[in-house]
Structures are given as C-alpha cells and as structure tokens.
Amino acid sequence: MTSLTEENYLKALFHLSSKKGEVTVKDLSNELAIKMPTVTSMMKKFSEKGLVKYESYKPLKLTEKGSRAAGLVIRKHRLTEMFLVEKMNFGWEEVHEIAEQIEHVKAPSFFEKMDQMLGHPKFDPHGSPIPDKEGKLEWKQFSKLSEAKAGDLFELQAVTNSDTSFLSYLNNKNFYLGLHLKIVEIEEFDGSVVVSFGENKMEVLSNKVAQGLLGEILNLDS
To answer: Using CA atoms, how far apart are residues 149 and 164, in angstroms rounded to an integer?
Structure first.
C-alpha cells in the first residue's frame, strides 16, 4: 500500500509524463518543490517496488504497475470532484483542494459507492477523463480554442487546469462545459480571440485563455 507522499509522487509523474513524454528527476523536483536528493531517494525506492524504471541520469518511466497505481489515485480525485459538484452543489472552482485531501482515503468501497451514485461518469467537472477501476485512462483528443478560425463554432468540453483563479475567471464570463462559442475574430498581433455566445453576448479572450479552453471545432463552412 502506498503512502500519501508516494501517491503525490505518482500523480506528479503521471501528469508530467502526459505533458512532456520524458520526465527527469529535476522535472519532478520542480513540480513537487522537493529537493533533488530527496526525489532521487524516493525514485530508488519506487524502483525497488517496481513502480518506476530508474537509472542515474536517464529519464524516469512509470512501469505498468506504477501507471495503474497513479491512475487509481487520479480516479479517486476526479470522482470526488464530480461528486462534490453533482451531489453537493459545489462550484467547479471549489473542488480541487477538497479532492486533494479525499483522494488519499484507503477505502475502495467508498469510491465504488460514489461511482455508483454518480452513474459511472467518464469525465470530471473540468472535462478530464476519469480512469477506470484498473487505473486505465482513455484519452480524448481535444482542440484548443486558439486553434479555431474566424467563423468556426467551438463547443467547450474541457479546461487545461483546475486553478481556482482560472475557473473563477470563466465563471465571471458565464462560461461552462457544453457552451457553444462562435469565433468572430482573431487578432493577428497577439492571438486574442473575439467570441460571441448566448443572446448577443461577446467577449475578448487572451491567447493564454484561448489555449486553456478545450473542445471540438465545428467548421460551419464545411
């Protein structure tokens, strides 16, 4: 059984691997804000447990066992977020920190019941896929709003992060998953995007925000 600290390492490895492909001890050290010798020591321990492939000065790689263990922690986190939103009426901007605590509960039946009550959801409130009972995660290919062209219709299906500040920003704009955004104009100078939605609503989004919104681009001219 993995400890809370080990679970946090596994999650960080999983997320970094998904973003970068290869993960170094330095990457992991920066992500967790933990000194490199401490990270190295933990990776040697993980290697002995069969959770990672570790060799000095080479990228780290989660083993099948390690990926499963990481996936199960992420499953608990994302199920908890969904439960907090769907059953307890929390906002999607409020649930990440709570789920960070609950994900370490060592009671599989607790999360199984949660899954049943939710009707076995495939995605969390932020549009991220929920790993299955074996810790396997089925990735969905999204487009970024920043990749759309003027005239396209974009359906918002996910966000790149669950930071409270970012989600609160989207709340203030009345953005939510499932919202359709019409691309009115893209500013050549800085990549900002003008969108329209709802009943004559219009917003100007920075390129940074546009890169953080994921979904499906529907080309209305095709």
So the answer is: 29
Closest to 132 measured CA to CA, from 96, 61, 95, 78: 78
Domains of the chain: 4-62 (1.10.10.10), 73-139 (1.10.10.10), 143-218 (2.30.30.90)
Q: Which residue has the tokens 């290697």?
A: 47
The C-alpha angle with vertex 192 and arms to 187 and 198, in degrees rounded to 5, equals 105
Distances (CA, A) of 60 to 20, 44, 55, 64: 12, 11, 8, 13
Tokens for 50, please give them: 């069969």
In angstroms, the CA 95 to CA 115 distance is 17
- Do 196 and 182 touch, CB atoms closer than 8 A? yes
Among 201, 133, 124, residue whose Cα is nearest residue 167: 124
User: Per residue in 97-145, pLDDT tens?
Assistant: 999 999 999 999 999 999 999 999 999 999 999 999 999 998 888 999 9
- Tokens read off for 170: 């989207």
Q: Which of 98, 160, 101 is nearest to 126 (CA)?
A: 160
- Work out the percent of the chain whose per-residue pLDDT is above 90: 87
Tens digit of pLDDT for each residue in 9-68?
A: 999 999 998 877 789 999 999 999 999 999 999 999 999 999 999 998 899 999 999 999
Question: Across-strand partners of 217?
Answer: 154
